[in-house]
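**Protein of interest**
===
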Amino acid sequence: MNEEIGIDLGTATVIIYMKNKGIVLREPSIVAIDKKSNEIIAYGNSAKKMEGRTPNDIETIRPLKDGVISNFTITSKMLKYFIKKVLTNKFSSPKIMVCVPSQITEVERRAVIDSCIEAGAKKVYLIEEPVAAAIGAGIEIQKPVGNLIVDIGGGTTDIAVVSIGGSVVSSSINVAGNKFDEVIAKYIKQKHNLSIGKSTAENLKIEIGNVFPYDKEKKAKVKGKNLKTGLPESLEIGSNELTNVLSEECLKIAEEIKATIEKAPPELVEDIAKKGIYMTGGGSMLYGIDKFISKNIGLKVMVAEDSISCVAIGTEKALENMEKSGDKK
């Protein structure tokens, strides 16, 4: 019997959900390549450990950028590796449903489908991320009622007004988790003359990142390279330093949400005014982002339980009705 797999093919993380098994894989969307032979030597967690620490002949690559495939060949190999890793029957040709950004082009859709076929899929279905996120969050989307979903991933924030099982209006902005890391690293470099790596910036975001101040300021130690001396240096960063830095980016998300609401039919806007905004994705775990969005838009905001897994969970639920819930290859 062929297995059924739901994939959240994220810019930062690949999450695989299998029917009746739950989440079976959660690994970074990254590979390590031997530049001499052009062969992939590590995937996911193993490759992540090498990031920023490789010799000249090894390179770490993230084959997805801003929510879409930027390197088809590497993405195909990475997907094949992850799919084979989770299959119980190694000779199985699974049915696969993949979440894609709401604004994906036809060329990009074709690239996703071809990657899965190359990875051994028997059939491939696509579902928009906000729709999958809504399903995974337990929202009843089949009713003729408007639901506003904001899915903040690694590369993109996807926003959609969902009703009767589909997206009525949607938009996508390249401001999400990776951008948060980028602006933190930039701030540390400009303010403290200290160069830090991607992983260090990400950890700082997780530890003390915020867009709505903590009741009591948090502090974290950060290590990097002093740009004047070229030597290692350690310093302490306060959470209040990051509030304004990250708020500038989250304000862009708030403005995009407003623009999406403005494009929606009046009847659905009325529903949204009553129900508020549902937020999913790893980026929604940034401290205070729900309060920040609520303050700037004037609507209540609810962060889904296990928000980082909502998209993958939504694909599994959609698999139960694949012929109706996606685009078949």
